[in-house]
Amino acid sequence: MRTTRTRGILTAAAAFVLAASAIGGTAAAQAAGTNDQPAGNGAGSHHETDTALADAFDGVDRNTKWQQTSKLKLNFPTYHTEGIAYSQDHIFLSAVQITEPTTKFPTPQNGFDRSPGKGIGHLFVMDTAGNLQKDIVLGEGDMYHPGGIDFDGTSVWVPVAQYRPNSSAIIYKVDANRLDVHKQFEVPDHFGGIVMDKQTGHLVGNTWGSRRFAEWDLQGKQLSTWENPNFFIDYQDCQYVPNAKMLCGGITNLPQTPAAGGAGATYELGGMAMIDLKSHGVTREAPFQQWSTAGHVATRNPFKMTADGDHLTMKVAPDNGEEGNGTEILTYEAAVTPAK
Prior knowledge:
The protein has helices at about 10-25, 25-30, 50-55, and strands at about 65-75, 80-85, 90-100, 105-110, 110-115, 120-125, 130-140, 145, 150, 155-160, 170-175, 180-185, 190-195, 200-205, 210-215, 220-225, 235-240, 245-255, 265-275, 280-285, 305-310, 310-315, 330-335. By secondary structure, the chain is mainly beta.
């Protein structure tokens, strides 16, 4: 979906290896069904009742001092990056390879505002040092656009949609160890992000521009749907957070002043939001305005965060493979005052 969608500074390589090692260190607990996201920075076993990340994120505001502590360049074609997730042994990165761009129609045709275009959906599987181990191709027909992804401790969930709103998508489950792919179900709309609610065992997805959310059981039965009343950013990549929350990163393109090019020129507003999966309300949000090598706001697409007490670590990969220095996984860290 797409954009309409310090602790002391270490060397880049050392910082990533340390962070990846710490992230991987909690995977045994994840696989046992405790916490679906890496704890980071050597944190111990986390349980569903552990609200460390939710509490720490409640200390984030627009004055939080984020420091970039590493860059990891990926040395393979990554195309247009979408979502990222971490398991004990792997980094997962979803991306879309566009072979024929979509074209806007002068007026809607058959309920669509643009042509389907053509492309190839990828789920790249890397080791913890960022070396490509496998390229899993996902999608069928016009559904070739992977979105934001989530790791539930056992499987990686990946939505693959048409590259246009009000269309359709396939929800895939990928075994994080064996890398087996299972087509879970199809849904009649563009869903560009997904999380597994480990409290209910249900999946929650967000549509194009994150204007609407839906909840399904694992057979694809829609259990509920709700509109997003918040227009601050379009959520691009989310993760489940105990207890019954989802944390999303995203972006909005906003028009510039006349002196900077007017409505024909835009700037990227980045941000993060914590959403309560029970009340459906946003419990905390904050802008994030740091930029990638290619000049994109860092929360443009792939986004994941971990907490160790009052220390937050964020992983993002905003740049496409063909721009700037290619796709780099950027690490940002910040100290906050957790909620009481």
